[in-house]
Design a protein that fits this description.
Radius of gyration: 65 Å
Helix content: over 70%
Distance between the termini: 191 Å
Number of strands: 0
Number of helices: 2
Strand content: under 5%
Length: 166
């Protein structure tokens, strides 16, 4: 027996056993292995597709987030502009109201000062009239102490009234 030349019986049984193993593997083993490989391939393909979908979804979410942020910034800027305009309007209105109120106060103060001035002048005139009457009374008492002087004054006053009537 030589190591390099096999015997025909050995070749027959080896071929037969190899064929049987090959038959069993082809009939039962390979389909199961191929199913598992196909299943694994499908699972990997589905996972890759899910990863792509997730990446696209993430990109869409990121884009939507950026759009929302831009819209929010625009709204914030619009609100700030609106608030500034409202503040300016309120300040102008407050200034106008303050100006009107101060003008009313000034007019009222002037009227009050004028009224008080007129009242003071009336009081001064009354005081002057009272003092004049008192002074005149004293002077007339002193000058008209006699009946003759009284008659002379009465005649002169009557003459003056006659002249003023004419």
């Amino acid at each position: 027996m030589s190591l390099l030349t096999p015997e025909p019986g050995l070749l027959f049984w080896m071929t037969l056993s190899f064929g049987a193993v090959l038959f069993v593997l082809v009939k039962y083993g390979f389909p199961t292995i191929l199913k598992s490989v196909d299943k694994r391939k499908n699972y990997i393909d589905e996972s890759l597709q899910a990863a792509r979908d997730a990446r696209e979804e993430l990109a869409n979410v990121k884009k939507a987030g950026e759009e929302m942020m831009a819209a929010t910034r625009e709204e914030q800027a619009a609100m700030l502009r609106e608030t500034a305009a409202l503040r300016e309007k309120l300040m102008v209105q407050a200034r106008d109201d303050a100006t009107k109120e101060s003008e009313k106060i000034i007019v009222n103060a002037r009227e009050q000062v004028r009224a008080e001035k007129e009242e003071a002048l009336r009081e001064i005139r009354n005081e002057i009239a009272v003092l004049s009457v008192n002074l005149t009374e004293k002077i007339l008492r002193e000058k008209l102490s006699t009946g003759e002087e009284q008659m002379s004054l009465i005649e002169r006053l009557l003459d003056e009234t006659d002249i003023s009537r004419s």
